[in-house]
């Protein structure tokens, strides 16, 4: 971490214009003395500003100083813009929405630091709502080092093992919250230290002036503003006990000059913090949420062996989707993840009846070819692991299952099956009302959810009801359904009629799709309102939510936007869903799709290398290798194409010495395809179509072949160019 001198950015007209409009919207909201769910900024300017932040922070994360690329970096708000989590678990939901578009609150961050930082922001003296950033910095006494306001080197030091050490309490808290001693960071910092020592030794031993100048240049690059970890590396070089290193570079080492005013206010801040009782720091909670980095399953139910990595993505939350044909194991994977997230201790505390309802004592919980099942879910670049070992007794008359395991992370877990039936009244059993997890319906299709009945019975204060109505309307409002709370603290539902007027209706008359969404959202809210600090923390509550067949019962218009609606309603929640629907996929970001297939050895694998699909049409998705259809016209055309590709594949495999032009000249597409204009209108088009058909046929069994990849497009282009079908570009 290093001090970064910010540039003046008042000349960015679009940022300032958007900021003024958004602040007016917030002022109107706060004037009504509402603070629970301030309106969010939904413009585009933050995406555009990332390029400017790259220049501002020298292409480095503001916190860990790793060099980042655009695809693996985020625009981070130093002061969170909603749900700031304070000491003792208190959450200030309105803080600091008004700094959303404040240039000096925008930082460049790597994805990992952003995830670990989350909404944690403890302060000694909270400022007032709408207070300018300059005043907040002076009075709040934040427990995180602001690298654009204080000199980090007065709080943190780098030692010769690559570890960061907090020399003040605020330095220690910053290292702890951001996990700045992550294994990958320590290894890279140690590599830079070794490199610095080696260059210093070479510099001392070198007599050639030109070689000496080159070594000097490389040392200066290491500790310059653009160098990775340069902020603390430079200080380490000048304060190390290694006299040779220090003496060899002190004459030309160009340390970054920290303004005297920054040093002065850092020293003043340190003195003021000493006046606070140290107990203040001891009770700062770190609400770190860990992202899944890998999943391993062996011998669990129908899955023999499965492993996949999960990409850490931009943003605090995420929505991952498993896609695959029926029977591949999507539901089983969600069940395995659920059990691993719960951990052995929580599972063993459920009791015999609860385990039975979850199917944990069933004969098929362990694959028939295995004596035990293993499930391993790793988090945060595999630094933490939840692992389960499931065994059963050898006695065939007593299929008793035993669960062992180690649990490094115990998050809130909610898992839902494909039926998601709403209860008619509040459920009483412990499993359905468990706080910290709700998983029954994923394992038992007859299980019912508390849904709207449970949440209205348990949460009766007006603020909670208003938040529930607000979230339900944010998800369903565009579908002509509104929710409101009357004077008797009752939740009322209104539906838009054909006369363009709203009428009050009962929950029971809603369609199956409406009921499904209302039920699952209410069940999620029921848990989140109970396990955390109530309504004020909804936007900062972190959990895992797993949903099987998310598209079930939903109208196409909902399928298209349901994932984005969930992201907006629960910004810090990590969703894992399964689906068969292409419209659901269009709500995914790059890296969030995991396509399940069997490889040549009949092992289940996940293909994850897909771009964002938001611009793709439904037909494009259905006829891609994701779904495997050859056409969406009719079943006859599908069968004709399948037979045609099989024949092309056979001829290509038997004609290894033949070139592409001979093969496509010898095999003509079926007449039925020509009649449907699937083969081109001119000879040139027909020849090019045959070449494409041959490319498809040759890769029919290639599990990792993707028409979306750059390599596939380049290969096809080169073939067409070599055959004279297209000109060079």
Automatic annotation (TrEMBL):
Q: Domain Rad50/SbcC-type AAA spans what residues?
A: 294-436
> From the UniProt record, which GO molecular function terms apply?
ATP hydrolysis activity
Which segments cross the bilayer? none
- UniProt GO BP: double-strand break repair
InterPro entries according to UniProt:
Bact_Antivir_Def_Nuclease (IPR051396), P-loop_NTPase (IPR027417), Rad50/SbcC_AAA (IPR038729)
SUPFAM superfamilies in the cross-refs: P-loop containing nucleoside triphosphate hydrolases
Q: Which Gene3D superfamilies does the UniProt record give?
A: 1.10.30.50, P-loop containing nucleotide triphosphate hydrolases
Q: What is this protein called?
A: Rad50/SbcC-type AAA domain-containing protein
Q: Which organism is it from?
A: Pseudoalteromonas tetraodonis GFC
């Amino acid at each position: 971490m290093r001090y970064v001198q910010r540039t003046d950015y008042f000349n960015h007209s679009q940022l300032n214009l958007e900021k003024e409009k958004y602040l007016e919207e917030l002022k109107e909201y706060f004037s009504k003395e509402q603070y629970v769910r301030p309106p969010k900024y939904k413009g585009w300017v933050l995406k555009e500003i990332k390029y400017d932040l790259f220049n501002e922070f020298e292409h480095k994360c503001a916190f860990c100083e790793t060099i980042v690329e655009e695809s693996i970096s985020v625009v981070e708000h130093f002061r969170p813009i909603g749900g700031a989590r304070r000491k003792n678990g208190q959450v200030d939901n309105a803080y600091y929405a008004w700094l959303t578009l404040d240039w000096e609150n925008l930082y460049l961050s790597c994805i990992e630091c952003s995830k670990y930082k989350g909404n944690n922001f403890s302060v000694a003296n909270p400022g007032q709502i709408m207070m300018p950033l300059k005043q907040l910095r002076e009075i709040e006494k934040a427990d995180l080092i602001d690298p654009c306001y204080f000199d980090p080197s007065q709080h943190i030091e780098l030692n010769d093992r690559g570890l960061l050490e907090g020399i003040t309490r605020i330095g220690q808290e910053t290292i702890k919250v951001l996990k700045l001693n992550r294994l990958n960071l320590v290894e890279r910092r140690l590599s830079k230290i070794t490199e610095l020592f080696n260059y210093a030794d070479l510099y001392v031993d070198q007599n050639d002036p030109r070689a000496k100048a080159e070594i000097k240049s490389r040392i200066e690059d290491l500790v310059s503003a653009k160098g990775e970890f340069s902020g603390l590396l430079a200080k380490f070089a000048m304060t190390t006990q290694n006299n040779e290193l220090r003496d060899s570079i002190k004459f030309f080492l160009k340390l970054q000059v920290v303004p005297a005013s920054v040093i002065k206010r850092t020293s003043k801040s340190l003195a003021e913090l000493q006046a606070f009782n140290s107990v203040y720091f001891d009770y700062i909670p770190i609400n770190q949420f860990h992202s899944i980095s890998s999943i391993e399953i062996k011998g669990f139910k129908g899955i023999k062996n499965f492993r996949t990595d999960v990409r850490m993505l931009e943003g605090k939350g995420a929505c991952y989707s498993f896609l695959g044909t029926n029977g591949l194991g999507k539901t089983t994977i969600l069940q395995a993840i659920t059990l691993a997230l719960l951990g052995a201790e929580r599972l063993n505390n459920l009791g015999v009846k609860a385990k039975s309802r979850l199917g944990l004592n069933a004969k098929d919980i362990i694959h028939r070819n295995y004596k035990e099942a293993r499930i391993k879910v790793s988090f945060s670049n595999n630094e933490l692991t939840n692992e389960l070992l499931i065994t059963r007794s050898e006695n065939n008359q007593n299929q008793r299952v035993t669960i062992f395991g180690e649990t490094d992370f115990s998050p809130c877990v909610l898992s839902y099956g494909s039926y998601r039936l709403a209860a008619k009244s509040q459920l009483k059993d412990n499993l359905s009302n468990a706080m910290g997890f709700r998983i029954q319906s994923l394992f038992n299709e007859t299980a019912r959810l508390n849904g709207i009945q449970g949440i209205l019975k348990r949460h009766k204060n007006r603020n909670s009801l208003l938040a529930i109505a607000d979230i339900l309307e944010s998800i369903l409002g565009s579908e002509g359904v509104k929710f409101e709370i009357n004077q008797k603290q009752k939740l009322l539902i209104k539906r838009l009629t054909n006369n363009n007027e709203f009428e009050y209706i009962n929950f029971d008359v809603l369609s199956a799709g409406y009921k499904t969404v209302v039920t699952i959202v209410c069940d999620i809210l029921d848990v989140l309102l109970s396990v955390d600090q109530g309504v004020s923390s909804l936007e900062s509550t972190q959990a895992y939510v797993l949903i099987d067949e998310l598209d079930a019962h939903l109208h196409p218009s909902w399928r298209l936007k349901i994932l984005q609606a969930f992201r907006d309603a629960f910004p810090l929640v990590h969703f894992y869903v399964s689906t068969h629907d292409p419209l659901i996929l269009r709500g995914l970001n790059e890296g969030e799709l995991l396509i399940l297939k069997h490889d040549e050895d009949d092992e289940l694998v996940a293909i994850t290398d897909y771009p964002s699909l938001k611009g793709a049409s439904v037909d494009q998705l259905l006829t891609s290798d994701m779904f495997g259809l050859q056409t969406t016209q009719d079943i006859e055309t599908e069968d004709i194409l399948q037979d045609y590709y099989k024949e092309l594949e056979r001829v290509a495999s038997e004609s290894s010495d033949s070139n592409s032009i001979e093969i496509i000249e010898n095999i003509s597409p079926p007449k039925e395809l020509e009649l449907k204009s699937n083969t081109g209108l001119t000879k040139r088009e027909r020849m090019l179509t045959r070449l494409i058909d041959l490319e498809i046929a040759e890769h029919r069994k290639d599990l990792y072949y993707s028409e979306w990849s750059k390599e596939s497009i380049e290969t096809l282009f080169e073939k067409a160019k070599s055959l004279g079908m297209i000109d060079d570009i």
